[in-house]
Structures are given as C-alpha cells and as structure tokens.
Design goal:
Blueprint (H helix, E strand, L loop, with lengths): L13 H10 L11 E6 L3 E2 L18 E8 L2 E5 L8 E5 L5 E3 L5 E5 L5 E9 L2
Antiparallel strand pairs: 1-8, 2-8, 3-6, 3-8, 4-5, 4-7
Length: about 120
C-alpha cells in the first residue's frame, strides 16, 4: 500500500531555492544584441584558473564577457559600486555569467571538478 503525504511541507532551503532560480537564468543579465565573440581564453579548471580571475578585475570599456561553464559550478561575484549592490551567482553549464564592461567582478572555485572558459565580445562592425 502506498501512503501519500498530504500535509504541506513548509520547510525549504533558501540557498538551494536561490540556486535553482539562478540556475534557470531568472536573474542573470543578458548579453547585448549585435555583439560577437572576438577572443576566448583557454579552458581552465580548479587548478589552472589564473589568480587574477580570483580577485577583483574588470574588462575594458566596450568589452563584454561570457563565463561559459563546461562542467561543474563556479561562483561569480559582481562587486558593489555606488550604483549597485554586490551580486553573487552560481554558474553551471545551464547558466553562464555575463560580465559587463568596466564592472569589477571575481570568481571563486566552489567545485573542484569545474571547467570553464571566458569569451570576450565586442560590438559588430
């Protein structure tokens, strides 16, 4: 005999809920139209990620970035400015990161199996 639980389960895990929402791309910024990839980094893993990506850095004016996760997960942090509060997103193969020009950001390895690259985009001619 199968017993069905008809009582609502009001317990939930906020970090998991937020992860699932971000995983679906609900809060991720989008890349602008009419921009194309002009350069990509090599593929990085937990051991080969450059130290510079792990601390505050930015792209130049007019250059957007797309953090493409090939395997695992990576934390992407957009650092606070006078106009914006800090944002944190968990990136995965289903959810890439959007890097806006000149905005300070950093990544954090949270999954030792992570593999990713960064694509750089500029406006089409």
């Amino acid at each position: 005999m199968v017993h069905w639980n008809t009582e609502p389960d009001l317990r939930f895990d906020i970090p998991t809920l937020v992860y699932k929402i971000v995983e679906e791309g609900a809060f991720m910024k989008t890349l602008p139209d009419h921009f194309s990839v002009y350069r990509s980094t090599p593929e990085f893993d937990a051991d080969s990620v450059p130290k510079g990506l792990l601390k505050a850095h930015h792209t130049k004016a007019g250059t957007w970035g797309k953090i493409v996760i090939l395997k695992g997960r990576l934390k992407y942090r957009i650092l606070p400015t006078d106009e914006n509060e800090m944002e944190e997103n968990i990136l995965s193969p289903q959810c890439f990161g959007v890097v806006e020009p000149t905005v300070l950001h950093e990544v954090e390895v949270i999954d030792e199996s992570v593999r990713f690259r960064v694509d750089f985009l500029k406006e089409d001619d």
